[in-house]
Design a protein that fits this description.
heterodimer, A: 100 residues, mainly alpha, 4 helices, 86% helix, 0% strand, flat, B: 250 residues, globular
């Protein structure tokens, strides 16, 4: 269980950098002058953050990954059931990959 | 007589925007977060095992793995830092890389600001310390559904935290001989989860330009830039296009 002092420094530095990113977003926004345009931009963030996460990840998983992601998105838009849509997407991906 | 609740209620009837949902912070909200977080944490435990095992091969002791998972609690950054883990440890590079990889949290926190600003600062900081990709996305999902309980971040993030610390420690103890999650296809669970959460922000075709630009720029950035930049750059580009295109975000 021994911890090397330099490793300890590295881990503490990583922890502080990460906490700064976790607390920094709201801190920065609270210091910007509030405006309807800012509020509109902040409302657009969740969808675009998720699109930026999903697009490279789906493409990394190949054509079946893209297909399964599209199925997930369509099922979610139609049903609104988060875990069901995600589970179905995973099953579609696994089945497509298991086909001979 | 003035009711203290009349102002938020009036605001809520004026607009369906998420901005007007009042914020609460309750045990019930935390439990809802636990329920949503549990399947995500189970799917993520494979990643935890793999990180623990890789960390051991990179020379980290068990204590160091537990300390890293317990204080940093950020999977992507911890994985990338392992590539830099060679003596003498390049401290500045490790810390800077961690900041860049986690800079996406700045945007996630920013998107929650109007919601969390109504909480006392202790609760706000507590909720934010549990901010991860997954807990943030679950919180946005709950908020979009009109459930205004910010403790969902603590419940969901707390379960993920517990699983992350335990599974990374177990991965270190087991050492090698773990199947890669990529080879089993189970790592797609997270792609599917985030795809479903993405679909939850759909509000008709006017949303499409922002999505397409965010996804396209992120793809290009993931190909040509070092790890960590693509989410930040893609999301900023996409949201600005949506803003200029007149998408009001509701």
């Amino acid at each position: 269980m021994g911890i090397d002092p330099r490793s300890l420094l590295a881990i503490m530095g990583m922890a502080m950098a990460t906490v700064a990113t976790r607390l920094g977003g709201p801190w920065l926004v609270a210091r910007l002058p509030p405006s309807p345009r800012l509020a509109r931009w902040l409302r657009l963030l969740p969808g675009t953050i998720l699109a930026a996460i999903v697009a490279p990840a789906a493409l990394d998983s190949g054509a079946f990954g893209v297909a399964a992601a599209v199925v997930t998105i369509v099922v979610m838009i139609r049903t609104g059931r988060l875990l069901i849509a995600a589970a179905l997407g995973l099953v579609v991906y696994l089945v497509l990959n298991a086909l001979p | 007589m003035e009711s203290p609740t009349s102002a938020p209620r009036l605001a809520a009837t004026r607009s369906a925007s998420v901005d007007s949902v009042p914020t609460v912070f309750t045990l019930g909200g935390a439990m809802a977060g636990v329920r949503l977080g549990l399947p995500i944490a189970l799917a993520g435990s494979v990643d935890g095992l793999v990180y623990g095992s890789l960390a051991r091969h990179a020379g980290l002791g068990l204590g160091e793995v537990i300390l890293a998972s317990g204080t940093v609690y950020a999977g992507a950054a911890q994985f990338i830092a392992l590539n830099l883990w060679s003596a003498p440890l390049p401290l500045a590079t490790i810390v800077l890389t961690t900041f860049v990889v986690n800079a996406r949290h700045l945007l996630m926190g920013a998107s929650l600001q109007s919601w969390l600003a109504r909480l006392p600062s202790t609760r706000r900081f507590t909720a934010l310390l549990f901010l991860t990709d997954e807990s943030w996305a679950v919180a946005e999902h709950e908020r979009a559904a009109g459930r205004a309980d910010a403790a969902v971040l603590v419940g969901c993030g707390g379960v993920l935290y517990l699983f992350w610390v335990v599974t990374t420690a177990v991965g270190h103890l087991l050492g090698g001989a773990l199947p890669s999650p990529h080879s089993t296809g189970l790592d797609f669970a997270f792609v599917a989860l985030f795809a479903a959460l993405l679909a939850n922000t759909w509000n008709g075709p006017r949303r499409l330009p922002a999505w397409l630009v965010a996804g396209g720029i992120a793809l290009a950035a993931a190909r040509w830039l070092p790890g960590g930049w693509h989410i930040l750059i893609g999301a900023i580009a996409g949201s600005l296009v949506g803003l200029l295109g007149g998408d009001d975000g509701n």
